[in-house]
Design goal:
CATH topology of the largest domain: Jelly Rolls
Mean pLDDT: 93
Shape: globular
Radius of gyration: 30 Å
Structural class: alpha+beta
Low-confidence stretches: 4-18
Number of helices: 9
Helix content: 10-25%
Distance between the termini: 66 Å
Largest sheet: 8 strands, mixed
Strand order of the largest sheet: 5-4-8-2-1-10-13-12
Number of domains: 3
Oligomer: single chain
Strand content: 35-45%
């Protein structure tokens, strides 16, 4: 969620009338009239870019600061997939933006130029959001064609923090990024992922000019569970100072903290306080409830009774209106949480951070594009909640917001004085012991038909593994509960006959307190095959199908998991009288990775045989989310160990 931060920028636009300005850059820029683009005849790429030029210019126009944004690309397409992806070019059209230049063309392998007909610039509307957008519908593209397009849009300026990608999934011959601004407005930049720094053009005098021109940008392909966007080469930029003003930093986290505090921690009117107290009564809090019980109840109640809309609307962020009508937008939802927590004296901090798969929070460069998502933090319990993620619950925030840094905003009260302090801190991931999948299975054989098993199956989910089900159990009733149990069992086998089935802790409000448990008894012939006098028992199938990670190419990007997790599996096999198992050693698997004395990843399976009772343990743990490339093979070995266990077939032979 993008936040809207109201920043007080002292004298930002001071003296704009007296500052000399050249005409905007785009006025003197155009593409080649008769292009002669060429590509290496030996290339095996499906597509590449000959040129990607972006110019953003901040410009005073009629006393207002506006932004002219130019994009010019030349792409070579050499596959059906590439042609399908780029035969429509989407434009940054909005109600507040105005297209100044808008053109495109196709250059065939034979050199024929097909200019875009204006009738092929189309407008469409997103059915869900109602948002309108424009796009080019390009025609005449064949393999080996070039497409070229260029547009300029005039729009309200965006300067509190912007991200610009230099690298993509295809090679780029030349990338040019240029930023122009009036001479009194200074910008600051930071490059990421081994990208060189943005330079300042010292020869330009009537305006500021910053540039980053890079040749031969290698492609970066996406990989399984990689943080692809966070791994691409990119820059972040922001407006830093106004030399016509007081010279202070414009975008600082201290300013952000104070402005957010003013918005989310106001003094409430007597009317609002009355509505807050009425809302608290609706929570039906138990007597002497501790703060953690209050937080859980509040989180459950808001997410099940207050309707949230992802639209900007002043009514939907007006606290009185929200308390009365129980409809809010994302800003309003946060205001509601904070109002109740403050009234009940529950200590908390407002946190802003980023999705680490998109961009890692940078602890040194202060810009608002690192402040895209809200959390609430409860220091006494060291736990978080995601107020705007309805599918989450207290203690288990959106996982990609954890294992990251964030800006923590804490209210400070000294007598009648109230303010806020902002501090950058690490957001700990949820501990591995909190997200657990526990499986206990007891298997017997029908003595009259050894191909049939009687199985007692007990499986319990907690943490993130229960979060997609347990918080919503109040919506699942009657036959739907049976279907849910049957769905869980289908991951093991569909060929079964139930003799009993039940759920334990199937109360929505028990999430995070007690695990959701499925206890099932059934008979099946899915796990045994007869081979003459011998029987093959498919032990591994009992844990369900497992992920197997293949790696044909050398890994390039770190792997990014959502959350820490553990699996505990105990399988007890009652061996039929007169039989023995001859390949018990197949059960033994031991793969792990340890760093600095701490075991980060592991899969360990082993057995204990007492008489005819075979007890098998298969435990699996993942205590790290971000897996560096140099550790990837060890991680893959552990992941594949579960798949190896899944393939185990025990051989039962007569004694």
């Amino acid at each position: 969620m993008k936040i809207k931060v109201s920043l007080i920028i002292t004298l930002l636009f001071a003296l704009q009338i007296t500052i000399a300005q050249e005409q905007p850059f785009f006025k003197s820029y155009d593409w080649e009239t008769t292009p002669s683009y060429k590509v290496d005849a030996n290339t095996t790429e499906e597509m590449l870019a000959l040129k990607e030029k972006t110019v953003t210019e901040f410009y005073f126009l009629d006393k207002d600061l506006i932004e002219f944004y130019l994009e010019h690309k030349v792409l070579w397409l050499n596959s059906d997939d590439a042609i399908e992806e780029f035969n429509k070019i989407y434009l940054p059209f909005s109600a507040r933006a105005e297209l100044q230049i808008n053109k495109a063309r196709v250059i065939t392998p034979e050199g024929k130029i097909i200019n875009l007909d204006k009738s092929k610039i189309l407008t469409a509307e997103d059915e869900e959001t109602g948002r309108k957008y424009k796009y080019y519908a390009l025609e005449g593209i064949t393999k080996g064609s070039f497409i070229e397009y260029m547009y300029v849009v005039k729009r309200p300026p965006s300067y509190t923090g912007k991200k610009f990608y230099i690298q993509d999934s295809y090679p780029i011959e030349k990338v040019e990024f240029d930023l122009f601004s009036p001479s009194n407005l200074l910008f600051k930049f930071k490059s990421f992922n081994n990208l060189k720094k943005v330079e300042k053009d010292t020869l330009t005098t009537l305006k500021q000019h910053y540039k980053l021109h890079v040749s031969k940008v290698e492609k970066l392909e996406d990989e399984y569970q990689a943080a692809y966007n966070a791994s691409r080469a990119f820059i972040v930029y922001k407006m830093d100072k106004n030399t016509a003003g007081n010279g202070a930093d414009i975008i600082t986290y201290n300013n952000v903290s104070q402005n957010l505090y003013a918005s989310y921690y106001p003094e409430y009117s007597s009317k609002t306080n009355g509505l807050i107290k009425d809302f608290i009564k609706e929570l039906t809090l138990p007597e002497n409830a501790d703060n953690e019980a209050i937080i859980r109840k509040l989180d459950f109640y808001i997410k099940t009774t207050v309707y949230s809309q992802d639209v900007y609307n002043e009514e939907l962020q007006d606290l009185d209106n929200i308390l009365t009508k129980k409809v809010a937008n994302e800003t309003g939802i946060i205001k509601l949480y904070i109002a109740i927590l403050r009234t009940l004296n529950v200590k908390h901090e407002l946190v802003l951070t980023s999705d680490r798969k998109e961009i890692k929070f940078d602890t040194n460069f202060e810009a608002t594009n690192f402040l895209t998502n809200f959390l609430l933090y409860f220091p006494k319990y060291k736990k978080y909640l995601s107020p705007n993620a309805s599918g989450t619950r207290y203690g288990f925030p959106m996982p990609y917001l954890t294992d990251n840094y964030g800006l923590f905003i804490k209210e400070v009260v000294i007598g009648d004085y109230k303010s806020a302090v902002g501090k950058i801190k690490y957001i700990e991931p949820v501990k591995v012991a909190e997200t657990v999948d526990v499986m206990k299975v007891n298997i017997s054989f029908n003595k009259d038909n050894l191909t049939e098993n009687n199985i007692h199956f007990d499986r319990a989910f907690s943490g993130y593994y229960a979060m997609n089900i347990q918080p919503f159990m109040h919506l699942i009733q009657g036959e739907d509960k049976d279907e849910l149990i049957e769905g869980i069992m289908e991951s093991i086998t569909k060929d079964l006959e139930f003799t009993s089935k039940k759920m334990v802790n199937d109360d929505s409000e028990l999430f995070g307190i007690k695990p959701l448990q499925f206890i099932v008894d059934f008979t099946t012939e899915a796990f045994v095959e007869k081979a003459g006098r011998k029987y093959l028992f498919k032990l591994g199938d009992l844990i369900g199908q497992q992920i197997q990670m293949y790696q044909e190419k050398e890994r390039v990007l770190p792997l990014e998991e959502q959350f820490h997790r553990s699996y505990y599996r105990t399988l007890t096999l009652n061996i039929p009288e007169g039989y023995k198992i001859t390949n018990l050693d197949d059960i033994n698997i031991n793969n792990s990775y340890t760093k600095e004395g701490k075991e980060l990843f592991s899969f360990k399976s082993f057995y204990k045989l007492e008489g005819n009772k075979l007890k098998i343990t298969a435990d699996e743990h993942y205590r790290e989310n971000i897996v560096p490339v140099n550790v990837y093979e060890q991680y893959r070995t552990v992941i594949n160990s579960a798949a190896d266990f899944n393939k185990i077939v025990l051989l039962l032979e007569p004694k």
